[in-house]
Design a protein that fits this description.
about 450 residues; mainly alpha; about 65% helix; about 0% strand; globular
């Protein structure tokens, strides 16, 4: 009996991609049932299953879209459930289960190692005991430090117990790029010019969105600077290709949207127009960082100008970096496609950057991820357009925000019909586990994949 229960919990016999898909679905379903309980809702009133499912999906998929405000609807119990769902979703259930399993048994089966390779976005099987414990240690460290710093603001305002809970909830939500808050109906807008809240939340968002692979690469090579005292230029050369691409793309995707928001919204009375100069700078930078799938906001997105909304859609679609808590097609995917196009225009047959060649397999995978995300998004947008009366811009913004697990909205989420909510739920789920993982979990592997046919030629362009 114990063996069967263990096999059920560990999903023994499931393919790695199916384990990931099923684990997320199971946590979402359990979370929805918990959020429906009277004890989880203020005044003991239960919520509709679809709304509970929507909220649980948004939390586990670290999105942040809401059909009701946690501060108004949920009790402390409900808020704790929501916080746990965010933490599980940010790290991934497979990561948590494997870490606990290693703590007791000190080893993983080959099948579970392959599943962890898929869940963590690795391209090879590694020493997962050390890797997983480092992930948990880094996560706890970032979240606790962030919570203590946020407490400097929230505790004086809300009292010790409530202020500390707000601080911990916000820190976990920020590091996991979830975007949930306990402030009220305006997210973090009351703190639009507050330096500590802005800086801490932005740091946590970027830290969670960089990816653990980047952290460990820098950590493993930082001794070259501190002990061997090599030049900084040489240190950068020693970093992995992914680390270099992630840092470059992160810098670009933070600064460029921030400048765009600052210029386009500068005189908008509904967003930046009413703020002083420090407030405008903080608002532009914060709402640029949050586009990296975080979902927090310090301005009213229902009042932004259309050019800003279009820019945000593009930035959200790209998202954060792999191996972390962010969503989107990922910075590395976009970079590989962009580099492939640039090298092709220059007449080069190989895609290269930083004196490294990117394989055709990687380019093909990047193209697949991009194409499949576009197809699923267009399908979702078409269904939402048929099922609702909202503007196409608002629908596009909502769909991209859901699939990129961002959590920002132009104010239409709570007004979506049941079909619209189900479409958003599906987009959030697919966006979190990854389009390739989702399709691999439901499509059987081709047994004739190694068969090669004679080459054919078609005209392109």
């Amino acid at each position: 009996m114990k063996r069967k229960l263990y096999q059920l919990i560990t999903m023994h016999g499931f393919a790695p991609t199916k384990k990931i898909a099923v684990s997320f679905f199971a946590v979402i379903l359990i979370g929805a049932l918990l959020l429906m309980l009277p004890i989880a809702n203020q005044n003991g009133a239960s919520v509709h299953f679809i709304d509970a499912l929507f909220t649980a999906t948004s939390a586990v998929c670290v999105t942040g879209l809401v059909v009701y405000f946690p501060a108004e609807q949920l009790t402390v119990f409900g808020q704790v459930v929501l916080m746990c769902l965010i933490q599980i979703g940010g790290l991934g259930l497979m990561t948590l289960v494997a870490t606990i399993h290693l703590g007791f048994k000190n080893r993983l089966s080959v099948q579970n190692k392959v599943a962890m390779k898929e869940a963590l976005g690795q391209n090879r099987v590694i020493n997962y005991k050390a890797y997983l414990f480092r992930i948990v240690k880094y996560t706890i460290t970032f979240e606790l430090v962030g919570a203590l710093l946020l407490a400097l603001v929230f505790v004086p305002e809300q009292g010790f117990a409530r202020g500390m809970f707000w601080s911990l909830f916000t820190a976990i939500s920020a590091f996991c790029n979830a975007g949930f808050d306990l402030v009220g109906t305006t997210n973090l807008a009351p703190y639009v010019s507050q330096p500590i809240v802005n800086i801490v939340v932005m740091t946590l968002i970027i830290s969670g969105g960089l990816g653990f692979i980047v952290y460990f690469d820098v950590r493993d090579k930082i001794h070259l600077l501190t002990k061997q005292h090599i030049p900084f230029k040489q240190f950068v050369k020693r970093l992995n290709l992914q680390t270099k691409i992630v840092f470059v793309m992160t810098t670009v995707l933070v600064l460029v949207p921030a400048i765009f928001i600052f210029i386009d919204e500068f005189n908008n009375p509904g967003t930046l127009g009413a703020l002083d100069m420090p407030g405008k700078i903080f608002a532009a930078l914060f709402n640029s960082v949050t586009l990296r799938t975080a979902g927090f906001s310090t301005i009213d997105y229902a009042k932004i100008y259309e050019p800003t909304a279009f820019m945000m859609i593009i930035t959200m679609f790209i998202g954060g970096s792999p191996g972390g808590t962010a969503g989107g097609i990922k910075t590395t995917t976009f970079a590989v496609i962009a580099l492939f196009v640039i090298n092709s225009l220059k007449g080069r047959r190989e895609t290269s950057v930083f004196h490294r060649t990117i394989s055709l397999d990687m380019v093909a995978t990047a193209m697949s991820v991009f194409t499949l995300n576009i197809l699923f998004l267009f399908t979702g947008i078409m269904i939402l357009s048929s099922a609702t009366d909202f503007s196409l811009l608002a629908i596009m913004f909502e769909a991209v925000s859901a699939m990129a697990t961002v959590g920002l909205s132009l104010g239409i989420t709570a007004s979506l019909p049941v079909l619209g909510k189900l479409i958003i739920i599906a987009l959030m789920y697919i966006g979190r586990i990854g389009i390739i993982t989702f399709l691999s979990s439901i499509v059987k592997e081709d047994k004739q994949k190694d068969i090669r046919y004679a080459e054919g030629r078609v005209m392109i362009g």
